Amino acid sequence: MVTILAIQLPVSRSIGINYGRIADNLPSPKDVAQKYKSCGIQLLRLFEPSPDVLEALKGSNLQVSLGTRNEDIQASASSPEAASQWVNTNVAPYKNDVNFKYIVLGNEVIPGPAGPSIAPALKNMHNAINSIGLTSTKVTTSIMMPAVEAPLMVNAYPYYAYSGDSTHNSLEYVTFQATNPVVTDGDLKYFNLFDAMVDSVYSALEKVGGAKVPIVIGETGWPTAGNEPYSSKQNAQTFNQNLLKYAQAAKGTPKRPGQPFDIFLFAMFNEDLKQSGIERNWGIFNTDTSPIYPLLQC
């Protein structure tokens, strides 16, 4: 049985929610921005520029992660002028009223044809962002690269490990409920799969000379339907509720204790124009902004 516990996020917590928009029944961007604020959600991730959304975010004080489309990466890599044009079109008009925390080049572009373009695109976009005075805005992507000084975004989904192999990945382990270590790696003890996933990224970075590169969890969450019995409102509530407690504790991972990181939940709403099945059912709120299951106190 899952205990219903609504959590109010402290203002200082580094937790956010992805604002996916592949749907035809979403609330207005203005109402969405207000919902983020009323729920105490400080970080909003937008996968690609939208003038309507960016206008609605003006003066909101939300910390915004703005993505480029995957198909725009090549142009930004090939030409500093193209990167500047993207910034001047999608960032500069809003820079005084929108708090851009991250600019993210694409999403899940590796493996794929855009891979070789990431490094030059990062450089050109970083210079373009700096040229308009946003020197504290970090330019990143979801690929592991030792040359990058900004945090790397990683999409970490314990759900897929559980739905793919529930024999070796117990529900308790993947939803932060294990009371004893499930996996031991030398002196490192893992009570949840999320920590193990994050530390596997740190280990991979260390092997390629990127030990000092921090990370951000760009996506994590649990679907409420589409692949029963693994997907359910109860499992989604349990995972996300315990993830929020994990984030609030800010303890870091066994490999990097004391080093908390930003985490973006996926997603704010269900997206009815996506492929049928679980892809449509990651939302925390219904499109009338009522909760799909109790999670946040708002």
From TrEMBL:
From what superkingdom does this record's organism come? Eukaryota
Q: Name one GO molecular function term.
A: glucan endo-1,3-beta-D-glucosidase activity
- Report the record's Gene Ontology biological process terms: carbohydrate metabolic process
Q: Which residues form a coiled coil?
A: none
Q: Does the keyword Ion transport apply?
A: no
Q: What is its EC number?
A: 3.2.1.39
One Pfam family name is Glyco_hydro_17
Q: Which UniProt keywords apply?
A: Glycosidase, Hydrolase
Q: SUPFAM superfamilies under this entry?
A: (Trans)glycosidases (SSF51445)
Q: Which reaction does it catalyse?
A: Hydrolysis of (1->3)-beta-D-glucosidic linkages in (1->3)-beta-D-glucans
Q: Which Gene3D superfamilies match?
A: Glycosidases
Q: Please give the PANTHER family that the UniProt record associates with this protein.
A: GLUCAN ENDO-1,3-BETA-GLUCOSIDASE BG1-RELATED-RELATED
Protein family membership: Belongs to the glycosyl hydrolase 17 family.
Name listed for the protein in its UniProt record: glucan endo-1,3-beta-D-glucosidase
Q: Which organism is it from?
A: Canavalia gladiata (Sword bean)
Per the UniProt record, the lineage of the source organism begins with:
Eukaryota, Viridiplantae, Streptophyta, Embryophyta, Tracheophyta
